[in-house]
Write a structure and sequence with these properties.
Blueprint (H helix, E strand, L loop, with lengths): L10 H23 L4 H13 L9 E6 L1 H7 L6 H14 L3 E4 L10 H9 L3 E4 L1 E3 L9 E3 L5 H4 L2 E3 L4 E2 L5 E10 L2 E4 L1 H5 L16 E7 L11 E3 H5 L12 E6 L7 E2 L10 E2 H14 L4 E2 L2 H21 L2 H26 L1 E2 L3 H35 L15 H28 L4 E6 L4 E4 L1 H9 L10 H5 L3 E2 L16 E6 L5 E10 L5 E10 L1 H20 L1 H11 L8 H29 L5 E4 H11 L1 H7 L2 E5 L6 E4 L1 H17 L5 E8 L3 E7 L7 H5 L16 H11 L3 E7 L3 E9 L10
Parallel strand pairs: 1-11, 1-12, 2-3, 2-12, 3-6, 15-16, 24-26
Antiparallel strand pairs: 4-5, 7-8, 8-9, 8-10, 13-14, 17-18, 17-22, 19-20, 20-21, 21-22, 23-25, 26-27, 27-29, 28-29
Length: 752
């Protein structure tokens, strides 16, 4: 069975959705690829850092060239013997590595002394990369002067890169150009190796292996000792042994300090401490890898399209919950990757896309639904259901127009419900409306009375099959639509145990889209009709047997020798008895013609006319009248009851013989447009206009003897076969009857 479905979504809504999806996709792509949300992403990143602070590292120490050291040692720059003495102190403590974040690019006379001190510990020195270089070069590189470059354990770069808000968050672990590359100072101290796939053949300066620095805290987070204290041996050697030592400037006015996410709005962090924070992250394996633009765009579009698909499948409340869930999931994914996988996935573009598309779709959806609703309400207003009603006031503005149309539609629905309730409630027959499973949805008072009569409760939702089980079919027709072999609609006569007789009929109930949604079952009490049929059968029995038997006995007595009645009286009695027999016979024939079920079959009307003429041959011969059947060379096929049609033609030919004194009665058959025409013409006395007006009335007798039921039977038989009959008569010139019957497309059965 066909299940009900919903109205299709209007095509305009899909078009609106597609436009919104395209606009949102372009917006998110532009935000990601154009990096227009970096400042928002920086804010989110900074908050993520603030909740991810960690304890100071135990294996890193910063030797600070601070204000106190400048006061004690003197103005900067210091002689290189000072730096050599510090490195000698460090060599005694045996640190793991030393990162000396001080530039020694100008040669001096003391370079050899400093170089000797550098060799005593695994010391890494920085170089200077100037962009742009001299004479049009892309960049210039200044290595440590003298023998320092050769004495150092490695030469590193200490470049830091500002974000758009002038905050240091990112560092490139490797930079280079012209076939050379330099690791970041912290990366070299962490014993990282250059990657083999860097662009060493590029002429300009390149950066590779970007990382975000996961600052563990604000300035001062790393353990720090003063340069002068270490120089004057006031720092225990145990504090430096086996640790990574970074030496760099922290004093005011040195110019080597930068804002960081954890340094606050009014303070900065020294470059050497930034290197220490980066070294700590590298040693712990906690540097943050920024997601590529491709991955960021893919995740953002996935979140966006998940919400867009939800727009088509979910209710407004469902889409609101989905938007909130996707936003929370996006933030959870960002912070989860940050804390667990040490990957930074910027969320702002995805969140902006969600915030953009949700109200935009809400607006366009409301507009599309509003237009669709207005169109449908207008269409409903134009559709005429035939019920009289007042015309509601209209409006020109959109909201007024919609309110007016919606009000009229609601009134119309209420009117239809009232009409349906009144129409069904006042039906004299029991009516039941069910769903496809047979659960009762609607019934009327007659239906409730019938259910109470049969001892069944028929409340809303009850199973109608319980009631139908109280009936049993008496004519073999389909009684219930819920049986496995039931046709789509059907009717049957049924009886109940209390002796009631009923006619049942069921049809499919369909909605406006012609989809079947249930069944309509009507049950009519035909007990009075069945009783009337029994009375009719008894009356026919009385006429056909009980009344004919005495009349036949009277005729037998009159014809016997013992009657002894005078000839005129005997003849009179015999005539009346014969007339009574004819009256009974014609009445029975008429009753059967009216009530007898038609036994239709394809038959040749030629055979019917010939059989009728043969039946009346004795009578026609006795009166000297010739009966001719013409037009029988071609078959004339109709669908009909052979017995009733033969009786009707016999009555017409018999009347023609009765009202003719001489001449010929012609039965002519011919084919018309989709019909068969049978005409019976005589040369008898004819009829007047007054007689023609009462021709087919019951018990209307002509000028010659008869009971007045023969032509009534003819009219009944012709009408039941879907045909017509006409009569043309002129007094003294004869009468012509014309019968027109629908032609059959089937071939007649061949009698053997």
């Amino acid at each position: 069975m066909t299940e009900p479905n919903q109205r299709p979504v209007p095509a305009r809504l899909y078009a609106e959705w597609l436009a919104v999806a395209l606009a949102a996709t372009l917006l998110v792509s532009g935000l990601v690829l154009g990096r227009l949300t970096e400042r928002l992403d920086h804010i989110v990143y900074d908050h993520a850092l603030s909740v991810a602070e960690r304890p100071p590292p135990d294996d890193i120490v910063v030797v600070a060239i601070d204000n106190r050291s400048l006061q004690a040692i003197g103005r900067w720059p210091w002689p290189r013997q000072i730096h050599a003495r510090l490195l000698d102190r460090l060599a005694v403590a045996r640190p793991r590595t030393v990162g000396y974040d001080v530039l020694f690019v100008e040669p001096t006379a003391d370079d050899s002394v400093l170089a000797a001190a550098v060799r005593r510990s695994p010391t890494y020195l920085p170089l200077v990369i100037d962009v742009p270089g001299k004479d049009g070069a892309a960049y210039d590189v200044a290595l440590p002067a003298g023998g320092l470059a050769a004495a150092a354990a490695g030469i590193a770069q200490v470049n830091l890169h500002f974000d758009g808000d002038r905050v240091i968050r990112k560092a490139y672990l490797e930079e280079g150009g012209s076939g050379r590359s330099w690791l970041q100072l912290a990366a070299m101290m962490a014993r990282l190796m250059p990657t083999p796939d860097t662009e060493r053949g590029t002429a300009g300066l390149w950066q590779a292996r970007p990382v975000l620095i996961p600052y563990g805290g604000a300035a001062g987070h790393i353990r720090t000792v003063s340069f002068v204290d270490l120089l004057e041996d006031r720092v225990p050697a145990e504090l430096l042994t086996g640790r990574h030592v970074l030496v760099g400037a922290t004093a005011d006015g040195m110019g080597d300090s930068y804002p960081t996410p954890t340094s606050g709005a009014t303070s900065q962090m020294a470059g050497v401490e930034i290197q220490a924070q980066l070294l700590d992250a590298l040693l712990r394996g906690e540097t943050i890898t920024p997601a590529s633009d491709g991955w960021t765009l893919a995740v953002a579009l996935t979140a966006l399209w998940a919400l867009l698909i939800g727009f088509l499948r979910l209710s407004p409340r469902g889409t609101a919950n989905l938007a909130l869930a996707i936003s929370c999931a996006m933030l959870a994914l960002t912070f989860g990757l940050f804390r667990i996988a040490h990957v930074w996935l910027p969320p702002s573009a995805a969140l902006i896309g969600l915030l953009f598309v949700y109200p935009l779709w809400g607006w366009r959806r409301l507009q599309a639904v509003s237009s669709y609703m207005t169109s449908e309400l207008r269409q409903l207003q134009r559709e005429d259901d035939g019920l009289p009603r007042k015309q509601g006031p209209g409006g020109r503005r959109e909201i007024t127009l919609q309110a007016s149309l919606l009000g009229q539609a609601i009134d119309r629905l209420r009117d239809l419900r009232r009409f349906l309730s009144d129409a069904i409630g006042r039906l004299p027959d029991a009516l039941f409306v069910t769903d496809l499973a047979g659960r009762l949805a609607l019934t009327n008072a007659e239906g409730q009375r019938l259910a109470a009569r049969l001892g069944v409760t028929m409340d809303r939702g009850a199973d109608l099959r319980t009631l139908l089980a109280r009936f049993h079919a008496t004519d073999g027709g389909p009684l219930s639509p819920f049986a496995a072999d039931s046709p789509i609609e059907g009717s049957a006569e049924a009886a109940t145990e209390d002796g009631g007789n009923f006619a049942t009929r069921y049809v499919a109930q369909r909605d406006a889209a012609n989809i079947q949604v249930g069944w309509i079952v009507r049950i009519v009490d035909i007990s009075p009709l069945k009783q009337a049929e029994r009375h009719r059968d008894e009356a026919l029995q009385l006429l056909s047997h009980d009344m004919r038997a005495p009349q036949s006995a009277i005729l037998t007595l009159l014809r016997s020798a013992e009657a002894g009645l005078p000839e005129p009286i005997a003849a009179r009695i015999e005539s009346l008895a014969n007339r009574t027999l004819d009256l009974a016979e014609d009445f029975v024939q008429l009753a059967r013609a009216e009530a007898k079920p038609l036994d239709n079959e394809p038959l040749d009307l030629n055979d019917v006319a010939i059989d009728a003429a043969d039946t009346l041959w004795p009578e026609s011969k006795a009166r000297g009248i010739r009966v001719e059947v013409e037009g029988v060379d071609e078959p004339h096929i109709v669908d009909g009851d052979r017995q009733l049609l033969t009786r009707a033609v016999i009555n017409l030919i018999g009347n023609a013989i009765k009202y003719s004194d001489q001449g010929t009665v012609r039965c002519t058959l011919s084919a018309g447009a989709g019909c068969v025409l049978l005409t019976i013409a005589d040369e008898g006395v004819g009829m007047t206009e007054e007689q023609l007006g009462k021709l087919f009335a019951r018990f209307h007798q002509g000028p010659r003897e008869g009971v007045g039921l023969g032509l009534a039977l003819v009219l009944t038989v012709v009408a039941r076969h879907g045909g017509t009959i006409g009569c043309d008569s002129t007094p003294g010139k004869g009468t012509t009857f014309a019968i027109k019957l629908p032609q059959s497309e089937a071939e007649p059965a061949i009698e053997v």
